Each structure stands twice: as structure tokens, then as C-alpha cells.
Amino acid sequence: MSGRSLIAALAVIWGTAGWAEDIGDAARGEEIFGLCSGCHEVGRGAENGIGPHLNGIFGRRAASVGDGYHYSDSLRRAGADGLEWHLRTLDAYIENPKALVSGTRMSFDGLEDAGERADLLAYLRRFSDNPRDIPEADPTARKREVDLPEAVLAMVGDPEYGEYLSSECLTCHQSDGNDDGIPSITNWPAEDFVVAMHAYKRKLRPHPVMQMMAGRLSDEEIAALAAYFETIN
Fold first, then answer.
1. Tens-digit pLDDT profile for the chain (233 aa)?
2. Which of the chain's termini has less CB crowding within 10 Å, N or C?
3. Do 11 and 46 fall into the same domain?
4. 166, 231 in Cβ contact below 8 A?
5. What's the chain's Rg over C-alpha atoms?
6. Which class for 40: exposed (0-12), middle (13-18), buried (19 or more C-beta within 10 A)?
7. Of 125, 141, 171, which one is at a domain's C-terminal end?
8. The model's pTM
């Protein structure tokens, strides 16, 4: 099904759904946003990270955040075909991202509970059209998983060396950014990559294979990998 056909089909379904515009508990939604905050920021000063910032998400065309953010080809095509983020489309995407945009890089399995989705959307709407002209609230930003010395965060990695080191990473992660059950790591901001790898290295992230891989890497090697994966699409 093409992007236009999918959007038209969804419009027919939603047109008969009797969707209530005033939905959800924003306070509960703020807690649920913790599931999203590993990749997304929202609020004053929010920036793009692993995922795009979510300020002004309501009414925004898919894949339209500027500032050089790299979307998947699938999401760019959906945006070009007219996909916009409103209550209905966001609800469908959060419920099952790959059902709406099959090639999305968002490594999130979905939120099955309709009430939780409603609460989350009520919270996010605070930073879009309710109230208008946002952001007006303190940021809900991503917290670092591990505190690292500024010297480690300031390291400028060598992307050519990172490419040389990347062969083991690419036995699982796909270089074209596709997600086939294993999260994409392409186009990650270097600092996010560094923090994640050090979290595995310190066993703060519970994945034994990644803990082993990260444990073998020096700070310089992690910085080099971060520099490489930040640059590939």
C-alpha cells in the first residue's frame, strides 16, 4: 500500500471513530514519557538527539524537523505523501510504529494500552497547540545514563578509525539504518553514542553482549566509533 493509500484508509477509519479531542491525563503522560526520553526531548531548549525533538509535534508534517536531522527514507516518503502528526496519526504510530511506517528507525515496539497512549499524547500536546506558541514549560530532557568526565565527552573521534573498528558492530547493526529487530545506530549524535557505550561498559545497561563489546573498548575507540556512526546514513 502506498503512503497516500495508507493515509486515505486511516482517514476513513478515524472519520467513523468518534475520537474525543480532550483526552488523557497529562500528569500521568509526563511519567509515561520516561519511555521516550531516552531518545526524545520536549520543552524549552529541547534539541534533536537520537530522535527529533517533540516540540510542536501536533500539526507537523512527518520528517519535517530541520537542523540537519536524518530521518529514515520510509518516514521521509510518508511525509512527502502527506502524513501529518495529529492525535489519530500519533496514536497509531505510538501503538505500533512499524505498522504505520514500516521502515522507521524508531526502535520502540509500541505502547499497547490505549489509556497510556492518550495520557502521553495529552502531555505532548502541552508543547504544541495546547497551549499555543510553545514551549512554555521547563524542559523534559534526556538525562544521561552515566556521568562522564568532560574530557571524555569532549574527545573528537577519528571517523576513519571508527570505520575500521565498526566491523564487529555491523555484524548485528545495519549500516543503512534499517531496523530488523536490532536498533539502528546510524546518525546518532556522537555524545549519545558515547554515553550509551559507557553505560554498557559500566553494566548500567543490561545487555551481556553489548557489555562485553563495550568492555573491550578504550575511551578513544568509543569516540572513534561515535564519530563514524554519526556520519553515515
1. 455 555 554 544 443 333 334 578 988 999 999 999 988 998 888 889 889 999 889 889 999 987 778 898 899 999 999 999 998 999 999 999 999 998 888 888 899 999 999 999 989 988 886 544 444 445 555 567 788 999 999 999 999 999 999 999 988 888 776 666 678 888 888 988 999 999 999 998 888 999 999 999 999 999 999 999 998 86
2. N
3. yes
4. no
5. 19
6. buried
7. 125
8. 0.65
